[in-house]
């Protein structure tokens, strides 16, 4: 297993902002995942599992970052009007969506444009346009923090809005999905969603995606725009002038700039509307802990 020491995290997140991690580990087997966890435990260091880093921003992290990108096996089988897909945690969500479009499968195509891995998408219960990835999960293969591996059915797991039992209960090694074949042309719907994202989101810039969760009954982006945060900039980091709920890196963005922007955004929204915004993006720095 490849291990890097004092590794720069900038290129391991989609927003291209990052400090350094004490160690980066790149397991390619489940046994190596366990070795990486044990490596961290032996050094009494916290652990963070990372896929594409599409909703993650790092400061300096005195811990072990375990990158799952090399766990990328995917298997497909069709039974009647259903398709079953088994995907390891490092499989790109875009691969799963391409398969869904090619096979005309319902639901998951709505997540088009998420630059995530399957493991990351499951851990945050990624969702958009009325679809959450948890709706299609049949079972998950999970490694607990003590190294034991167990399979859980969807009924045994509790998912919520942008939340899941992971990584608190362990790391998702593999996800088994069940999809229905659609009775309409999925490709047309998929193209419409891609075009909408292109019009309304800064997809061609380094970004961490949605910054805050939507409060009940409203949208974080609308609240941020109403309080003048659209385009708000500190240094080389800003809330996009295309979509106020998207952080973007304009060049050499810094973690400290991110913190200042988020603090100002939360302050303004609370003062104007009495609503406390909750981060959807994960802010990771030295004080991390196991299972975070």
TrEMBL record:
Q: Where in the cell is it found?
A: Cytoplasm
Which first-to-last residue range defines the signal peptide?
Answer: none
Q: Which Gene3D superfamilies match?
A: 3.30.465.10, UDP-N-acetylenolpyruvoylglucosamine reductase, C-terminal domain, Uridine Diphospho-n-acetylenolpyruvylglucosamine Reductase, domain 2
What single Pfam family name could you report for this chain, choosing any that match? MurB_C
Instruction: Using the record's annotation, list all stretches that form the FAD-binding PCMH-type domain.
Output: 16-182
Q: Which GO terms describe its biological process?
A: cell division; cell wall organization; peptidoglycan biosynthetic process; regulation of cell shape
Q: Name one GO cellular component term.
A: cytosol
Keywords of this protein's UniProt record, alphabetized? Cell cycle, Cell division, Cell shape, Cell wall biogenesis/degradation, Cytoplasm, FAD, Flavoprotein, NADP, Oxidoreductase, Peptidoglycan synthesis
Q: Where is the active site?
A: 162, 210 (proton donor), 280
Q: Which GO terms describe its molecular function?
A: FAD binding; UDP-N-acetylmuramate dehydrogenase activity
Name the catalysed reactions: UDP-N-acetyl-alpha-D-muramate + NADP(+) = UDP-N-acetyl-3-O-(1-carboxyvinyl)-alpha-D-glucosamine + NADPH + H(+)
The UniProt entry lists the main location of this chain as cytoplasm
Pathway participation: Cell wall biogenesis; peptidoglycan biosynthesis
| Membership in a protein family | Belongs to the MurB family.
PANTHER family on file: UDP-N-ACETYLENOLPYRUVOYLGLUCOSAMINE REDUCTASE (PTHR21071)
Protein function? Cell wall formation.
Q: What is the protein name given in its UniProt record?
A: UDP-N-acetylenolpyruvoylglucosamine reductase
Name of encoding gene = murB
């Amino acid at each position: 297993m490849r291990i890097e020491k004092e590794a720069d995290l900038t290129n391991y997140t989609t927003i291209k902002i990052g400090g350094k991690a004490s160690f980066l580990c790149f397991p390619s087997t489940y046994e190596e995942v366990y070795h990486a966890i044990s490596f961290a435990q032996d050094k009494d260091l916290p652990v963070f599992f990372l896929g594409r880093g599409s909703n993650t921003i790092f400061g300096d992290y005195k811990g072990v970052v375990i990158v799952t990108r090399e766990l990328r096996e995917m298997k497909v089988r069709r039974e009647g009007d259903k398709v079953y897909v088994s995907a390891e945690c490092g499989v790109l969500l875009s691969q799963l969506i391409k398969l869904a479009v090619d096979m005309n499968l319902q639901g998951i195509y709505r997540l088009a444009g998420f630059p995530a891995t399957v493991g990351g998408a499951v851990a945050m219960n990624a969702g958009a346009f009325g679809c959450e990835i948890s709706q299609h999960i049949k079972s998950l293969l999970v490694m607990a923090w003590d190294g034991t591996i167990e399979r859980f059915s969807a009924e045994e797991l509790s998912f919520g809005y942008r939340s899941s039992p992971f990584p608190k209960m362990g790391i998702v090694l593999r996800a088994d999905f069940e999809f229905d074949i659609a009775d309409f042309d999925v490709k047309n719907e998929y193209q419409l969603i891609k075009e909408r994202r292109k019009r309304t989101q800064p997809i061609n810039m380094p970004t961490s995606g949605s910054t805050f969760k939507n409060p009940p009954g409203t949208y974080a982006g609308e609240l941020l725009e109403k309080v003048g945060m659209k385009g708000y900039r500190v240094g080389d980091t800003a809330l996009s002038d295309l979509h106020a709920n998207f952080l973007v890196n304009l060049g050499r963005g810094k973690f400290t700039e991110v913190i200042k922007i988020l603090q100002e955004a939360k302050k303004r929204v609370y003062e104007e509307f009495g609503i406390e915004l909750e981060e959807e993006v994960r802010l990771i720095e030295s004080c991390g802990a196991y299972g975070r």
